[in-house]
Amino acid sequence: MAKLYFRYGAMGSSKTANALMVRYNYYERGKKSLLLKPALENRDGESTIKSRIGLEAECLFVEDFLRDYERDENVVKEYDAIIVDEAQFLSAEQVDRLSDIVDFHNIPVICYGLRTDFQCNFFPGSERLLEVADKIEEVKTVCWCGRKATCNARIFNGKIVRDGEQVFMGGNESYIALCRKHFKEGKIS
Ligand SMILES: [Zn+2]
Is residue 39 domain-resident? Predict the structure, then answer.
């Protein structure tokens, strides 16, 4: 049976690089996977998924793909797996549609994303994935102190920002992964 996976981690935990490696592993075995990301995640404004270490690949937007799937379920049949990057930005409903692909077409869906936002609150997509995913796995990264980083601090002018909108398209450089203690203390280095 196929499974719905949620692989979560803080900023800088190589989630995107992992997603692209999984895609490559399918490709190497002669299998076809589909890369998706929410259109909301439009840092680069393009339908590509880019990792910090330079790997990148073409993708489709989740919204467009699910619209096609709604019209004709057969669009999923050519794929052996579906890989979703930036899954925190999915809506709960989109997560549920993706879980339909697992349940009714037996195709694994592997979602990568942040667990929480810059205030340590769930993103809607992550919350729903934690509710319904079959397999929940952590992609780890460390704080500057060496402890596991679990919080995503939003940084402006070298200081932690505590208030603002959940989604702020400042790019990766506006965030830093910290352990919970240093997030509370606001110590970023
Ligand atoms: Zn720390």
Answer: yes
